Amino acid sequence: MRSKLHSYDWLLFDADETLFSFDAEAGLQRLFKRYGVDFSATDYRHYQSLNKPLWQHYQAGQIDAKTLQRQRFAGWAAELGVSADELNSGFMQAMADICQPLAGARALLERARTSAKVGIVTNGFTELQEARLAQTGLRELIDVLIISEQVGVAKPHPSIFEHALQRMQQPHRERVLMTGDNPHSDVLGAQQSGLHSCWLNPKGEHYPLATPPHYTVSSLAELDQLLASPQ
């Protein structure tokens, strides 16, 4: 039987495409405009052909965050005569400038804090996560912020969840709910660590894994309604 949402002591959330929009193409266009480059749809497809495999390697623990950040911009760095680190930092700032909380995010976090503590567990990078939380004013609503770049491992690896639980003073695992849009890193990662899970599925996609999440919601507003519903 599923636990009532307001019986949880901790509500954990992914960041990108769970609490925040993440339009990488718009961020890259903003970045390269500073260098006089009209970043096209073809450029974006090529970037993603490099970036997506790097993220898969990162989440599998095969490369570290710095390697991912540098390799995805190595070609552009050589072409523009700047460092890959400069381009990556510029991209992080561009994303912080344009990324906004998804609809219902603030209301959900405010309601969550009336009955539980709130945390973020993200595979995103420190520079972006901290800037975005500060700029949107959501940092004050977060009790614990866990960033894979700082921990040294990424979701779904159990170590990042163990690190989070340690920071959370080791609550009962069945009283912790992890919500995210990625079945593999968020839902499976939570399940492997004994946490309850909620899949944010705004596109109505088929769940791809064997063990379903405890909850599936189509929006943050739906999750907010579940939090508000009586037992």
From TrEMBL:
It comes from Pseudidiomarina piscicola. The keyword Hydrolase applies. This is Pyrimidine 5'-nucleotidase YjjG. Its EC number is 3.1.3.5. Coiled coil: none annotated. The keyword Cell inner membrane does not apply. It is an enzyme of class 3 (hydrolase). One of its GO terms (molecular function) is 5'-nucleotidase activity. It holds the Pfam family Hydrolase. Keywords: Hydrolase. The gene is yjjG.
